[in-house]
Amino acid sequence: MPLETLETRLEKIFYLTPSVRTFRLRFVGGKGFPFQAGQFSMVHIQGEDKVHKKPYSINSSPFEEGYIDLCIKFIEGGFATNWFWNLQEGAIIPAAGPYGNFLLKEPIDYDPIFIATGTGLAPLRSMLRQGYHSGQFTNARQVTLIFGVRYDDELFYADEFREMEKQHPNFRFIPTISRPKAWSGEVGYVQDKLKKYVSDPQGKQIYVCGLTPMINAVEQTALEMGFDKKQIHYEKYG
Q1: What is the average pLDDT score of the chain?
Q2: Radius of gyration of the chain (CA)
Q3: pTM for the whole thing?
């Protein structure tokens, strides 16, 4: 059964990096669709001759009512991202949802490990913010986020996660950059950081989101470490 398409108004654009922006879509009339952290919305983009439906993970969390945030990376020559980059605040954008089953396994009586590259961070940020807001992570000994980007200026939401570390003793944030210039933190790929920071697969679940090659590499590394396939959950982008 098709989900209802609702009108949203582009309320604000957050400029995160030279190539990544978050678009806040406020539901017209105030009432939107209820969603769970990890799900996505289908944005309806009007082309010259037809409507294009483009899926985007919801970057905001369910407790933030009345709007959804979409975190989008600019793709040179990409129809959808060029359309978004030309929008002005106040634009009306039809969106449908929620879609998807990339959800936290409950109850959270395990240690969740979140792994993302680029805008694959979006659904994981939603899960993290919702999890701490609702108290879902109370029984987790350790909540880990491994976040990888290529270059120094592509790291976004780092300040937010460092603040989360200060507020929640059981949270650790591990950013890593694969092609650093003036970066003094972790260097390399996310799957290598999984191997470095996680010693035992027992009592853990992995949630990973990003491009298919990265997910395949993380899964292969996790299996070599002794994780069972049932402990690895993912959402692939392309």
Answers
A1: 95
A2: 18
A3: 0.96
